[in-house]
Amino acid sequence: MSSGISTDGVMAIRNAILQKNAALRDVTAPIDGGSVGGVGGGTGSAKPGDFTAALKSALEQVDGLQAKAGDAAAAFERGETTDIAAVMLAKQQASIGFEATLQVRNKLLSAYKDIMSMPV
User: Is 80 helix (H, G, I), strand (E, B) or coil?
Assistant: First the structure.
């Protein structure tokens, strides 16, 4: 008895999704430079406001990723697009950006608590 879905058909769909993901990754890589949050690891003379500016920029970028993911999901729900791979990729990028931001916040809070508990 045949279920109507062949292994070859599933593999063809899988390959098509992987190709679209690779194409989307190639398109978005030059835009964000491949770094979550847009904060580089460069060293050198830093101005006092650089950390604040970098953190604000990272938060704005995460907000933009979340807005983009929300717009893509809404367009898919309205039927304006049928590319579920692009929608899922946008949602995953937003999720990873948010998780990275959350981890930075946790590390900052931990460092603050360590500094505040130091004897003077």
Answer: coil
